[in-house]
Amino acid sequence: MKREIKTTNDGSKTLFINDLNENYHSHHGALQEAEHVFIKNGLNQINDYEINILELGFGTGLNVLVTINEYLKTDKNHVINYFSLEKYPINESEINDLAYFEHFDNPEFKNIYQKIHQADWGTSSEIIKGFNLKKIECDFFNLKDIDLPKINLVYYDCFGARVQPDLWEKPLFEMVSDKMSVNGLLTTYSSKGSVRRILQELNFNVKKLQGPPGKREMINAVKQ
């Protein structure tokens, strides 16, 4: 599918898929959406020493970068193991054009950004001390066959239900739930009523929260 680079309202870039009429991120702001949904209402809600994160999907790598940025603000006395699934990896030209490192003051972020994207698929790589990344190239529905530690934080960042409705139905959420620990948190930009009901059926405590700029609501769900 043909993709093109677009600039969102906060100055950060995203990819746009012409055939689907779909952005990888909110046109209101790619960076601020990632920070609101996955950091403020995701990572910052977890207090475990070892945090195992599962992301669906890797996309442009922006969620990994904002997670590392937040990790560097802490005393780093904990470990993050980050597992990210992606069926259609982006190419080197797109990686260079997105240049997300430009939005961070840390001069090391260009190198960190490159390490994220240069990391071998299917192999765990230490991007910085205490932060391990494993990118897995696969269809999301292969999740059931992937060996993972118990996940205590899920970044559910699939394309929207308008273009990929099967990613927002019960079978995939069941697979995700099976990989999660009790009291694990799933966070997503979606606030669809059908998604809330599915998660409740799977014994999640579901909360609607204020969404990122341009979106009224989002979901947090804790596995019971």
UniProtKB/TrEMBL annotation:
PANTHER family: MNMC-LIKE METHYLTRANSFERASE DOMAIN-CONTAINING PROTEIN, SLL0983 PROTEIN. NCBIfam families: tRNA_MNMC2. InterPro entries: MnmC-like_methylTransf, SAM-dependent_MTases_sf, tRNA_MNMC2. It holds the Pfam family Methyltransf_30. It comes from the Bacteria. This is tRNA (5-methylaminomethyl-2-thiouridine)(34)-methyltransferase MnmD. Residues 142-224 form the MnmC-like methyltransferase domain. It comes from Chryseobacterium kwangjuense.
